[in-house]
Amino acid sequence: MSDLNTFRTETRSWLEANCPESMRVPIRSFEDIYNGGRNPEMSHPDQKIWCDRMAERGWTVPEWPKAYGGGGLSKAEAKVLREEMARIGARSPLDSFGISMLGPALLKFGNEDQKLEHLPPIVRGEIRWCQGYSEPNAGSDLASLATRAEDKGDHYIVNGQKIWTSYADKADWIFCLVRTDNTGSKHEGISFVLFDMATPGVTTRPIKLISGSSPFCETFFDDVPVLKKNLVGEEGKGWTIAKYLLTHEREMISSFGAASGKKTLGQRAADNMGTDASGRLRAGTLRSVIAQYQLDTLAFAATMEKVTAEAKAGQGLGPASSIFKYYGTELNKRRNELLLSVEGESALGWDGEEYNEGEIARAWLRSKGNSIEGGTSEVQLNIVAKRVLGLPDA
Amino acid sequence: MSLVLNEEEIMLRDSAAGFLAETANVDAFRKHRDNPPPAGFDQALWGSIAEMGWCGIAIDEAHGGLGYGFTGLGLIIEQMGKNLTVSPFNSTVLMAGTAIAQFGTEAQKQEWLPKIAAGEVVMALAIQEGSHFDLDSLSTSVSAQGDSFAVKAEKRQVLDAIGADAYVVVGKDVSGYQAFIVTADQVSVQDQSMVDARSSGTVVIDISLSADAQMDPQSLNSGGLERALDIMNIGLAAELLGVSVEAFERTVGYLRERKQFGKVIGSFQGLQHRAADLFAELELCKAIVLKGLRAVDAGDDLGGLASAVKAKLAQISQRATNEGVQMHGGIGMTDEYDIGFFIKRARVLEHTLGDFHYHLDRYALQGGY
User: Fold this and answer.
1) Band of the pLDDT at A356, cuts 50, 70, 90?
2) Which CATH number is associated with domain A129-236?
3) Cα distance between residue B23 and residue B33, in whole Å
4) Do A264 and B255 touch (CB under 8 A)?
5) B220-366 domain in CATH 1.20.140.10?
6) How many beta-carbon contacts under 8 Å exist across A and B?
7) What confidence category does residue A258 fall into, taking pLDDT thresholds of 50, 70 and 90?
8) pLDDT of B54 strictly over 50
């Protein structure tokens, strides 16, 4: 315990000395989130300085092993670090798919050479990764993907197309599902490969969404050579890794639902629309819908807390992650829809300072994608019905 | 406190589940419904429950209990919900016991809590006036007359009113809440048969009570009554959880067996998605009930949490039992089939000490809107 106290004291003074003031200001826009990469986008030059300082101690990924550039911290130490960062309002130094997705997959399924080659640049924010999963004809039915990788001895030649590739136009490398065999069932013959987006034959095209932003791309592969040393796991066994990562992704997307400002939706409504003498929101029917939303948010947070506690106690995660994704994203859609009701006309603005550049409307539209990306709500319900409730296929 | 059960709690839950499934199960409830015992409950079963120490689980050791807490009590109540167990456990232990512990005088605690803990007494809570539970609209039914009090009230939906030896009666005088412990000979009770076939009634009080019957007005009026009711509602939600989960499991079991159009009906996506969504909601219910019980044990401010717990369980128990009947189809409507018992029990529990709307309103008010 006293070791942990020492660690806390040291961490506190190191953070005080090294976290730039500008990185203690709350994140206001997507540009404030640092994603690293060969050509990093920044709203402030301190973002890179802050990332470099943290990366030097491995604290961009506190719990990864030191051998791969991580912080090598215990769970308890990592918690102290999080608490101390929260204490001064320090921003996360680096956010990336490398950290949240590829890293955990490589630690679990990669060989030693792959870990040594790819993990340290992720830790330092030098390489930004994207994920090549969905295809025009393989969305909810991901396993029917058709991008082909042909065996050419020491390398593969990849041909095909991906879609909904998040930030493909900004990424340096891709982790990608390809078909190396189509003689067996659709889940067999899928392989998990890594390659540089700068390789000749790779092109990307951003997709403009209803919210006006373009976080996703179409990605085309035309005779792209991929060395076999960049195959993760066994050839034809990529589906196992894909499923593992989907579980991760669903947990990430579900956390959107927990996001909220300081004021609850109900309090915001009370400020905007007024209350009666008893303290009740005047808009009675809206009040009841908001209360049900708040109630479910509270219950959902308790569920996340319970599942986390069970996992820590060694009782495992299991199929609960499918419920999280489904429920969290539906909850977030409800929240955004209610925000429109609470804010009224001012929520419908698209441009201009008065409307905060359409922040509410754009977030509302963007939220509609939450229950589509990473497996639609309907697919999540299918999974629960079959795997958890044991109901048979049609 | 962590939202995960420790080994001791799991053992307690499993032993309660085992005992009740064997001796106080749904078949036993059907027999009770068809031939209700005169006392309103099975005295042999009540004796066994007392012997296992369940009645004293949440009562502190200084007053003859085990001091184990409300999480343990909630786990037992949940199993009673699953099995539709009939006993005066809720009214005596959860309701009267909590009321006395929260706002009884020390003398009353010394007198009654050890008897409750030992299962030697059956008690009931008499608080509701009129058709709806509403703390704000209790009529002024108490007036002080020197050293004594004139109490005149009609209390409705008093669970286990018939077999009770004594009652905690909560009312109001001009200065605030007033509460008394009265014995069966001091009230008249009208049996009100309700949809769940349990003992319940209207208690009419018109009597002058001496000061030693009066409960502590200071703790009563400084948050003690609200806290007691919050704890009771979390306990009732634990029973609703058991009722809902059991109804759901029976329904999913039926979906796996019943064939129509040459197929098991559980293979139809229309039913699968409704069942999966309900599963998700029930996972939320499990978490929020445990959160409520832990908050009681931690001595946390229950504020809006207790109303959130009750409202959520009220809402989802409606859905679980309604879907239970619907998905069973025609046989779900028959008295011969058990699923109908769950919908009946769920609604009585929901409407005890405030239904979905009452608690959603209170939850919103506590949240500042």
Assistant:
1) confident
2) 2.40.110.10
3) 15
4) no
5) yes
6) 143
7) very low
8) yes
> Which fold, B123-216?
Butyryl-CoA Dehydrogenase, subunit A; domain 2 (2.40.110)
User: What is the pLDDT confidence band of residue B277, given thresholds at 50, 70 and 90?
Assistant: very high
**Å from A206 to nearest chain B CA?**
34
Q: Tell me, yes or no, if the two domains B7-117 and B123-216 fold the same way.
A: no
Contact across the interface for B367 and A305, Cβ inside 8 Å: no
Q: Looking at CA atoms only, how far is residue A299 from chain B in angstroms?
A: 5
C-alpha span between A363 and A360 (Å, rounded): 5
The residues of chain A that CATH labels 2.40.110.10 are 129-236
β partners of residue A232: A192
Encoded tokens for A278:
């008893």
Catalytic, A126? Answer no
Point out the residue among A281, A309, A389 whose CB comes nearest to the CB of B275.
A389
Question: Do A303 and B283 lie within an 8 Å CB cutoff?
Answer: yes
Catalytic option among A249, A251, A330, A343: A249
Predicted interface score ipTM higher than 0.90: yes
Q: How many residues does chain A have?
A: 394
> Tell me, what's the pLDDT at A254?
61
Which pair of tokens denotes residue A372? Answer: 């589509």
Spatial contact of A146 and A355, defined as CB atoms under 8 Å apart: no
Contact B172, B99 (CB under 8 A): no
| Residue A285 reports pLDDT greater than 70 | yes
Whether the predicted pLDDT of A232 surpasses 80: yes
Residue B140 scores a pLDDT above 60:
yes
User: Could you state, in order of their start, the residue ranges of all structural domains in chain B?
Assistant: 7-117, 123-216, 220-366
Fold classification of A2-102 is Butyryl-Coa Dehydrogenase, subunit A; domain 1 (1.10.540)
Q: Which of A275, A281, A391 sits opposite B275 (nearest CB)?
A: A391
Angle between helices B70-83 and B269-298 (to 10 degrees): 150
Are residues A327 and B280 in contact, defined by beta-carbon separation less than 8 angstroms? Answer: yes
Q: Please report where in the chains the tokens 């839950």 appear, as a residue.
A: B13
- At CA A338, angle to CA A337 and CA A344, rounded to 5? 95
Q: Hey, is the C-beta of B311 within 8 angstroms of any chain A C-beta? A: yes
Domain with CATH 1.20.140.10 in chain A: 242-388
What pLDDT was estimated at residue A26? 85
Topology of domain A242-388, CATH: Butyryl-CoA Dehydrogenase, subunit A; domain 3 (1.20.140)
Beta strands in chain B (DSSP E): 123-126, 142-145, 148-159, 166-173, 176-183, 188-191, 200-210, 259-260, 263-264
CA A128, CA A60: separation in Å to the nearest integer?
14
What are the CB-based long-range contacts (under 8 Å, 24+) for B37-45?
B39/B162, B39/B163, B40/B88, B40/B160, B40/B162, B40/B163, B40/B198, B40/B199, B41/B86, B41/B87, B41/B88, B41/B122, B41/B160, B41/B163, B41/B199, B42/B86, B42/B87, B45/B85, B45/B86, B45/B87
Chain B partners of A307 at a C-beta cutoff of 8 Å? 287
Contact A173, A36 (CB under 8 A): no
Separation in Å, CA of B312 to nearest CA in chain A: 7
The correct CATH number of B7-117 out of 1.10.540.10, 3.90.930.60, 2.30.40.10, 1.10.150.170 is 1.10.540.10
